[in-house]
TrEMBL record:
Belongs to the bacterial solute-binding protein ModA family. The keyword Metal-binding applies. PANTHER family: MOLYBDATE-BINDING PERIPLASMIC PROTEIN (PTHR30632), TUNGSTATE_MOLYBDATE_CHROMATE-BINDING PROTEIN MODA (PTHR30632:SF14). The keyword Cytoplasm does not apply. This is Molybdate ABC transporter substrate-binding protein. Keywords: Metal-binding, Signal. It comes from Comamonas avium. It comes from the Bacteria. Residues 1-23 form the signal peptide.
């Protein structure tokens, strides 16, 4: 059957308006270590689906406190698996939506080229004034750093040199500005396209600390939000996973 160009144009315009009407916004609390990849994922997600993800970055522990006090987040992308599990147990989120979106990697990093050797032996020299570390009570990467130093029998010796950030973002800033010669940070903060961007680094072997499983969960505020489901599905897709892998995460 023949359809005139004007009719086809009207159908196309109607379809576009229908798509726009169904596009929604979802507020996402994102662990600091996942800042760079999530910014890229959110941009691609909006381009591909029309939905928008509004991102807030911070420490997982602080996000938990805010969520407990009624903060209007729709999704939590945590730096651990314990916090989303607790949120589900307490009835603040959808347990069925929870999944591991990445496994983080810890790295000892210095902005100075050649300062950190490939095996982290620099820690044993003691020839540094400060080591940046995230608060282990709030940030899983800080806990992993403490566990690593404990395994190396260096925690007591190095602890007086700690410069503590409240999250891994602040911890990275301490190291990046030179306020600390060394910093235990997320590999994603110093890696892009599969390689270290600058400085020198020791990627801490996974067996040195508990796995940094990073889980996502849909919170009660977003149980009927179309964009929430779309974003959770998108994080499991090939485009998002390619970005996540480029920043040094595993699955």
């Amino acid at each position: 059957m023949f359809t005139s160009p004007s009719v086809r144009a009207c159908v196309l315009i109607a379809a576009l308006f229908t798509g726009a009407a169904h596009a929604e916004t979802i507020s996402v609390a994102v662990a600091s270590n996942f800042t760079a990849p999530m910014q890229k994922i959110a941009a691609q997600f909006e381009k591909d689906t029309g939905h928008k993800a509004e991102l807030s970055f911070g420490a997982t522990g602080k996000f938990y406190a805010q969520i407990s006090n009624g903060a209007p987040f729709g999704i939590l992308l945590a730096a651990d698996d314990k916090t989303p599990a607790q949120i589900a147990q307490e009835g603040k989120g959808d347990a069925a939506s929870r999944f591991t979106y990445s496994i983080g990697k810890l790295v000892l990093w210095s902005k100075q080229d050649g300062y950190v050797d490939a095996n982290g032996e620099v820690l044993k020299t003691g020839k540094f004034q400060h080591v940046a570390i995230a608060n282990p009570k709030l940030a899983p990467y800080g806990l992993a750093a403490e566990q690593t130093l404990t395994k190396l029998n260096l925690l007591d010796a190095i602890k007086p040199k700690f410069v503590q950030g409240e999250n891994i973002g602040q911890t990275y800033q301490f190291a990046a500005t030179g306020n600390a010669e060394l910093g235990f940070v997320a590999l994603s903060q110093v890696m892009e396209d599969g390689k270290i961007k600058s400085g020198s680094a020791w990627v801490v072997p996974a067996e040195m600390h508990e796995p940094i499983r990073q889980d996502a969960i849909v919170l009660n505020n977003a149980k009927d939000n179309v964009a929430a489901k779309a974003l959770m599905d998108y994080l499991k897709g090939d485009k998002a996973r390619a970005i996540i892998t480029a920043y040094g995460y595993a699955f």
